[in-house]
Amino acid sequence: MPTTQYIARTDGRPPLRFQGERLAWLDTHWDRGREQTRWWQLEVYRTAAGRYVLVAAYRTAWQGERDEVTADVLDDLGQVPELLEKRGVPAHLISELCELLDLEEIVP
Q: Which of 46, 55, 67, 69 is the most exposed place for a label (fewest CB within 10 A)?
């Protein structure tokens, strides 16, 4: 697996530096042909050590509002949907990201 060095800059924490590959990227700045003034950017990476990094950014173009960016290191890719739900990401975006990651819920 070819790896690249990434730096995730987040709010209130030091930058997170890691080697890996980007598995999925979702950006809703342009949605249904319209530019949005508030939007989500979601990124998922697999590190060279086999862990996962989830970067969730809620962006805004409004004066007086600030972007909110978080980055989490996960042991299991299956943790992504629950963590995004806790972050307030809309359900349809979580589903879209899961499709990009080929994540499925298996019913026994």
A: 67
| Amino acid 4: pLDDT | 93
| 71-78 long-range Cβ contacts below 8 angstroms, 24+ apart | 71/8, 71/10, 71/13, 71/16, 73/16, 73/47, 75/51, 76/52, 77/44, 77/52, 77/101, 77/103, 78/103
Q: Is the pLDDT of residue 56 over 80?
A: yes
List the domain boundaries for the chain: 4-100
Structure tokens at 4: 């690249």
